[in-house]
């Protein structure tokens, strides 16, 4: 084992004295101080550790290990941006470096840069936790505001880095085109239009495309103010104008007047992506000068050649590298002639464009800007980021943008900067780190986009800061405490059990000083009318998230989080209840960010067995402690599906389901003894989860055709009612089996029946009336039994074959509607039998349902949720 590894092992084992002894024997001063720093860090002596890392960096400022250790210490000391500085200097960044960079940006500046760093980290390590961290950041901060960056071909150099970062935070397109149709399509797609350069594209877009519902940004770099195009742009369509330099803004307003309110403008300095330019500490500089860019009169090559001529007279070892292309033949002739006349040809080398500027700059010692006019001059900042000394001609505003002491007005000052002035790579790098990192530029852009988001969300199409959230208020009181109930498919509501549960909760919530906020993803006038008719007392909010889908699309998840966040601002909840499973999954995703008190109300097992069953079961396992079960039956179904034995009733949150319709039944008396005929009633919703009706109708039609006389009334509309009619017609039993097309059940009509076939709340209601009820099992049995034939079996008669409360039975023992009804009709006096059974059942149900009254159920929910 190498000595360094041995020392690290000793430090990790807390054997500090042994490690310290070995460290003292190390000759390499950088490694010695680095290991001393690690030793003191592990001992918890942070300041001593910091001191030793600083000593190591003074000797070798480019050592990756020391840079990381020092940056880590700075971050622990809450000096995030200082930590960022040293992390960015690491040459070979690993996942941990990018992870820290992501943390720093997320917490301090650019969310886009933070997410990108997390993404890079996730690609450098196989550990799934980093991928989850990236995914979470993306879900948390990603905004569903589409941005189209529009730019002419050949002018996209400056916008590409911005686009690459911003696309981690917003859905984005970069359209580099002068094709009018491509530009129109991009504008139509986007919410925000970014016009890169105030040139022909900006002119076309603002004058030829409808931008009324858009937010538009334009960035003016420089050359545009010397053309007439800004005078042709429709500035009324522009929401914000960025200038790269102050003096370009001054020129703009002098030349074109107040085309745009100055308050809609700001200075956005260019940003340098420091990750692309590796810092090198040039302690002993060489004699290589470079100028980079297109060769034209604006770049001031005459000034450079005269100054360089004087430099060669002082020291003929200097070399000048010119990397760029001539843009004018006359200017090319003039410069080449000047080089010849000054005898500089052997000291100057023209370099073709290179792919990797950073690699090429490693051998350069001075970066020159001899321009007569610039807005920023990127290559100055890029070279300074590598520790290269800048030598800058005094063009307008240069002293505000670049270091004062590196700016020359004449040849003498040019020579002084190169020959006499201190060469300090650290200062050049620090200057760019402080003033022009791309993260700083992105932060300013993100602030503007955030303001656009607020404006977009406050348009007349929005409500609750986002009028796509519709609000219906059915509350006459003004409680200031809130409970949310999130449920999908409000638009499909009927007069069913789930709807009654919701209304029950709204009433009980008021007793505890809460207002129930019902959140769903669609509605109809009918569904609103049903809740109003049932007596709902709360508010209804309609969001846009497709709650019936699984939450797999990160953009939709981000939108959902934003929707709930805006609701949270107005109605901060003490409890959030989710139902059914897909809606609950959306809540779990949002809760990673919003940190709400979430519980899931498992009203029906059927929802767990629809769609992606494995995903449903996975959710059940992961969320078991937050699930509120209504009875043992629902729990047992899942435990059986999961192959878990020894089910213990006391190990889960058992709250029940409230039967608030009981009050309406108290004064209803049976009225079924006026003749000897047997009448059977069913009133489920005609949805596929209630398809037991089809089996029951089929069985009863067969009984009638086998000589048994009785009557069946099926109450309901829509759904598969036409299928039931076909079964009735096929068996020619229209006289005996009828569909009663009523949406809302009338219990006086129910009371004329002798027997019921129902499930859930409906089964409890008929039992409470004293009508023996065949409990229909609505569970799709193919999920449990390999021999499933398609028949949905009844479990028996409530109160006779199993208890109403916490039913247990043999999952593999079948009954049929045919057998149960036949066994009753074969009795000597079926009507008397059913009335006797019904009296016992009514008494039992009254007692059993005390557990399920509204007050008890809601109180248990509050208790299990930690509110009571």
Nutshell version of this structure?
It is built from 35 helices and 26 strands. By secondary structure, it is α/β, with parallel strands linked by helices. The strands form four sheets. An eight-stranded mixed beta sheet has the order 13-16-15-14-17-18-19-20, sandwiched between helices. A six-stranded parallel beta sheet has the order 2-1-3-4-5-6, with helices on both faces. Strands 9-8-7-10-11-12 form a six-stranded parallel beta sheet.
Polypeptide structure, described:
There is one protein chain. With 868 residues, this protein is α/β, with parallel strands linked by helices. It contains 35 helices and 26 strands. The strands form four sheets. An eight-stranded mixed beta sheet has the order 13-16-15-14-17-18-19-20, sandwiched between helices. Strands 2-1-3-4-5-6 form a six-stranded parallel beta sheet, with helices on both faces. The chain is elongated and about 130 Å long. The chain starts with a helix and ends with a helix.
List unreliable stretches of 5+ residues.
Answer: 457-467, 644-651, 779-792, 801-814
Averaged pLDDT: 85
Query: Could you tell me the number of beta strands?
Result: 26
Roughly how many Å apart are the termini? 61 Å
Structural class: alpha/beta
* Assembly annotation: single chain
Proportion in helices: 40-55%
Strand order of the largest sheet: 13-16-15-14-17-18-19-20
Number of helical regions: 35
- Rg over CA atoms: 38 Å
Tell me the fraction of residues in β-strands, as a range: 5-15%
So what's the overall shape?
Answer: elongated
> Quick one: biggest sheet?
8 strands, mixed
């Amino acid at each position: 084992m190498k000595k360094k590894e041995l020392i690290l092992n000793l430090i990790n084992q807390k054997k500090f004295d042994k490690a310290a002894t070995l460290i003292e024997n190390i000759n390499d001063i950088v490694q010695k101080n680095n290991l001393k720093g690690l030793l003191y860090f592990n001992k918890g002596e942070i300041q001593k550790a910091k001191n030793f890392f600083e000593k190591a960096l003074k000797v070798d400022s480019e050592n990756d290990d020391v840079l990381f250790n020092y940056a880590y210490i700075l971050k622990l000391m809450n000096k995030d941006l200082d930590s960022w500085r040293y992390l960015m200097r690491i040459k070979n960044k690993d996942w941990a470096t990018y992870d820290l960079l992501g943390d720093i940006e997320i917490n301090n500046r650019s969310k886009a840069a933070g997410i990108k760093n997390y993404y890079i980290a996730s690609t450098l390590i196989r550990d799934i936790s980093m991928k989850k961290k990236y995914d979470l950041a993306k879900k948390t901060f990603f905004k569903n505001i589409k941005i189209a960056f529009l730019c002419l071909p050949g002018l996209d150099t400056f916008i590409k880095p911005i686009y690459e970062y911003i696309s981690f935070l917003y859905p984005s397109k970069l359209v580099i085109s002068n094709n009018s149709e491509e530009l129109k399509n991009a504008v139509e797609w986007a919410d925000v239009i970014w016009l890169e350069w105030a040139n022909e594209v900006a002119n076309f877009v603002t004058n030829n495309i409808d931008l009324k519902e858009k937010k538009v940004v334009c960035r003016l770099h420089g050359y545009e103010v010397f053309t007439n195009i800004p005078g042709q742009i429709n500035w009324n369509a522009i929401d914000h104008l960025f200038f790269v330099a102050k003096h370009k803004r001054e020129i703009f307003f002098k030349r074109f007047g107040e085309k745009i309110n100055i308050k809609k403008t700001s200075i956005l300095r260019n940003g340098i992506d420091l990750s692309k330019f590796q810092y090198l500490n040039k302690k002993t500089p060489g004699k290589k000068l470079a100028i980079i860019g297109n060769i034209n009169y604006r770049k001031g090559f005459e000034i450079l050649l005269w100054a360089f001529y004087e430099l060669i007279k002082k020291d003929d070892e200097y070399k000048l590298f010119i990397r760029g292309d001539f843009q004018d033949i006359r200017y090319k002739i003039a410069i080449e002639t000047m080089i010849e006349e000054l005898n500089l040809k052997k000291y100057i080398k023209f370099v073709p464009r290179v792919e990797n500027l950073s690699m090429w700059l490693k051998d350069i010692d001075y970066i020159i800007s001899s321009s007569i006019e610039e807005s920023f001059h990127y290559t100055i900042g890029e070279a300074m980021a590598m520790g290269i000394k800048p030598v800058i001609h005094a063009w307008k505003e240069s002293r505000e943008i670049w270091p004062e002491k590196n700016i020359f007005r004449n040849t003498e000052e040019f020579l002084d900067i190169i020959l006499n002035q201190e060469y300090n790579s650290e200062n050049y790098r620090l200057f760019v780190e402080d003033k022009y990192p791309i993260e700083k530029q992105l932060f300013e852009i993100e602030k503007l986009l955030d303001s656009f988001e607020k404006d977009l969300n406050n348009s007349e199409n929005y409500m609750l800061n986002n009028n796509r959230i519709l609000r219906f208020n059915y509350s006459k009181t003004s409680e200031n405490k809130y409970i949310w109930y999130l449920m999908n498919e409000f638009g499909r509501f009927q007069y069913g059990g789930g709807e009654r549960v919701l209304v029950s909760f709204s009433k009980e919530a008021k007793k505890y000083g809460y207002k129930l906020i019902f959140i769903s993803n669609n509605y109809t006038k009918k569904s609103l009318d049903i809740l109003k008719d049932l007596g709902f007392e709360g508010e209804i909010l309609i969001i846009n998230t497709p709650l019936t889908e699984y939450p797999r699309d990160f953009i939709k998840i981000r939108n959902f989080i934003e929707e709930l966040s805006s609701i949270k601002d107005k109605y901060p909840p003490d409890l959030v209840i989710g139902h059914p499973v897909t809606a609950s999954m959306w809540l779990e995703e949002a809760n990673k960010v919003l940190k709400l008190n979430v519980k899931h109300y498992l009203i029906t097992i059927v929802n767990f067995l629809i769609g992606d069953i494995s995903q449903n079961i996975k959710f059940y396992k992961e969320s078991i402690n937050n699930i509120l079960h209504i009875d043992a039956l629902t729990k047992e179904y899942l435990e059986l599906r999961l192959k878990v034995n020894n089910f213990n009733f006391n190990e889960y949150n058992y709250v029940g389901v409230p039967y608030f319709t009981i009050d309406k039944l108290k004064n209803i008396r049976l009225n079924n003894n006026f003749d000897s005929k047997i009448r059977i009633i069913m009133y489920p919703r005609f949805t596929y989860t209630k398809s037991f009706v089809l089996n029951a109708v089929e069985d009863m039609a067969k009984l009638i055709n086998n000589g048994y006389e009785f009557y069946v009334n099926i109450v309901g509309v829509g759904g598969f009612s036409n299928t039931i009619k076909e079964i009735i017609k096929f068996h020619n039993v229209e006289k005996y089996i009828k569909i009663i097309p009523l949406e809302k059940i009338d219990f006086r009509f129910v009371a004329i029946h002798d027997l019921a076939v129902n499930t859930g709340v409906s089964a409890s209601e008929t039992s409470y009336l004293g009508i023996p009820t065949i409990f229909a099992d609505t569970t799709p049995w193919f999920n449990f039994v390999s021999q499933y034939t398609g028949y949905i079996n009844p479990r028996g008669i409530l109160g006779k074959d199993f208890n109403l409360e916490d039913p247990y039975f043999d999952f593999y023992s079948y009954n049929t509607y045919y057998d149960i009804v036949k066994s009753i009709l074969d009795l000597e006096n079926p009507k008397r039998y059913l009335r006797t059974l019904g009296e016992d059942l009514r008494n039992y149900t009254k007692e059993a349902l005390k557990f399920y009254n509204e007050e008890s159920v809601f109180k248990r929910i509050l208790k299990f949720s930690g509110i009571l």
